[in-house]
Amino acid sequence: MSSSTVTNLLLLGSGSDPLSERGVTCAGEIPAASDPELVSRAKAARAALGDRAIVLGHHYQRDEVIEFADITGDSFKLAQAAQAQSTAEFVIFCGVHFMAESADILTSDRQKVILPDLAAGCSMADMATASQVDECWKTLSDLGVAATTIPVTYMNSSAAIKSFTGEHGGTVCTSSNAQSAMRWAFTQGEKVLFLPDQHLGRNTAVQSLGLSLEDCVLWNPWKPMGGLTESEIKNAKVILWRGHCSVHGRFSKESIDDVRSRIPEVKILVHPECTHEVVTNADVVGSTEFIIKTIEAAPAGSAWAIGTEFNLVSRLAKAHPDKTIVFLDKTLCYCSTMNRIDLPHLVWAMESLVAGHVVNQISVDDTVKKFSQLALERMLAL
Known about the structure:
The protein is of the alpha/beta class. It folds into 3 domains: about 110 residues, Rossmann fold; about 110 residues, 3-Layer(aba) Sandwich (Rossmann fold), CATH 3.40.50; about 120 residues, Rossmann fold. The protein has 15 helices and 14 strands. The chain is globular and about 65 Å long.
């Protein structure tokens, strides 16, 4: 394969199968395009809603959903977009539950946030419950360190966790601004309790802030005192929650070694939710928006192996046929909960709104909203 005529690949198994027109890979098939009638219905419903609605689409959504998104972005960009949509009566959020909650927190009371499928959740967000975090904080209080500990929660958390963070002087972060959020936290206290993604917290602390791995301890909510000793808690600078992303956690050092062995001069580009070992062996690390911009700016003929959700990698591969773009793992991996938002659910939600029926509205309790909004506004100020 010459550098001047690089074939655009999604997945390179031992046979190095190229991407076909419909995105077939050696590991499986991309779902077939939606029924044309369904596409027509979606266009009609979207036109009927007009300015009454805004459709927000996360980058990990299916192409058939992204087609109808007025704004696409990662969780940080969409949080900002939700806050800016002061005139739309309906905010149709094509993402997952915690993102729709954040949109409800940041929008006005007269606006309604709609999640097309209520089953679109996030396994990472579910790894930290309000009762577990309260128990952790009680332990930190009993040890006399809570007063100097600032909680920072990743956007991928429930409104209840965001509320806890806001009430205790902390903030929210995304993969785009985790470094800024953690630096800010250390100006407010001596320790950081980072929720719920241990990998983003560890990578930010070590790669961006220059702390050591020994400065970080891992809190296991299923064990007494998080599975830690009193001295470990008191000596730690960062207390990481035992949570992770099921997609980004799949990538490994072996995946990197395998791709490097097969593709000359390939650059490894990964999301900071990947494990510390993967991040330290990658060439470039950054948020979803950063990954997109990096590929857009990359020279023709360059080769990239990307460690993030497959829908985005597939979309980037199709958008940049002048570059070799491969999925970092040999096993195809979607975000299963993000993929629950499909065109049938989106059409149903929009047609229901056109008919005057509000479905799947996401509404956050006023008390939870108060402190969540405080934490989110601290983030947006950063």
